[in-house]
Amino acid sequence: MTRQIILDTETTGLNATGGDRLIEVAAVELLNRRPGAHFQRYVNPQRASHPDALRVHGLTEEFLADKPLFEHIADDLLEFVRGAEVIIHNAAFDLGFLDAELERIGRAPFSRHCGPITDTLLLARTQFPGKFNSLDALCKRFGVDNTKRTLHGALLDAELLAEVYIWLTRGQDSLVIEPDASAQGKAAAPADLSGLALARVAVSADELAEHERILQDLEKSSSGKAVWQPSSKTVA
Question: Counting runs of H as helices and runs of E as strands, what totals does the chain give?
Fold first, then answer.
């Protein structure tokens, strides 16, 4: 079974090396490209968010004050991603913050705890060079409903990115679960219609005349190439 993790974070600002901190991390599991478990944790960054960042995520210092420190959620996060391919939009940004948080508590970089890391921003730039490839732009391009995204939230963004990823990789157009996944790719058995009784409906002379008129109009517009008309030619 293929296990993939779609991951997103929210932070106090843009500069992981300059002291900005992680405040939320969330992930959505895909099992054979179908939705599985969710992971989401808020984190007390022990500092205020930059005003611009606060306008984006809306997670105030007061809201985060009683949330756990990163060191207290690290094991749960690393266990959730262990061994799986991790898919992130603009991966360098999120990995920079995750690695900085892990370094503070003496742990190895994030990539050492999971499988390969795929950046959907790079995938999108390959498919749509020169286009806007933000998550919102990709949602609009693929018809993924992001109307609930008034503020950025890591779990909602991970769920949206999961839909976008399916479109980007074209293996499946939706995360809707089919009743019988094992039947995919197999030819359907032909339906038995032998017992189906069809009702016979009588038509009037006027209806027959109107039908004939339409056929003649089609014959004329197709320059005599209508395949439904009886052929007047004799085949030797």
Answer: 8, 5
Supply the residues annotated as catalytic: 152
Query: What top-level class would CATH report for the domain 3-176?
Result: alpha beta
Question: What number of other Cβ atoms are within 10 A of residue 228's Cβ?
Answer: 7
Residue type, 152: H
> Cβ(230)–Cβ(224) under 8 Å?
no
Calculate helix-pair angle for 135-142, 154-169, nearest 10 degrees. Answer: 50
Instruction: List the chain domain ranges.
Output: 3-176
pTM: 0.71
Kindly state the percentage of the chain with pLDDT values over 90.
Answer: 67
DSSP 124-153: HHHHSTTS--SHHHHHHHHT---TT-SS--
The model's pLDDT over 121-162, given as tens digits with 9 standing for 90+, comes to 999 999 999 999 999 999 999 999 988 776 678 999 999 999
pLDDT (tens digit per residue) in 40-70: 999 999 999 999 999 999 999 999 999 999 9
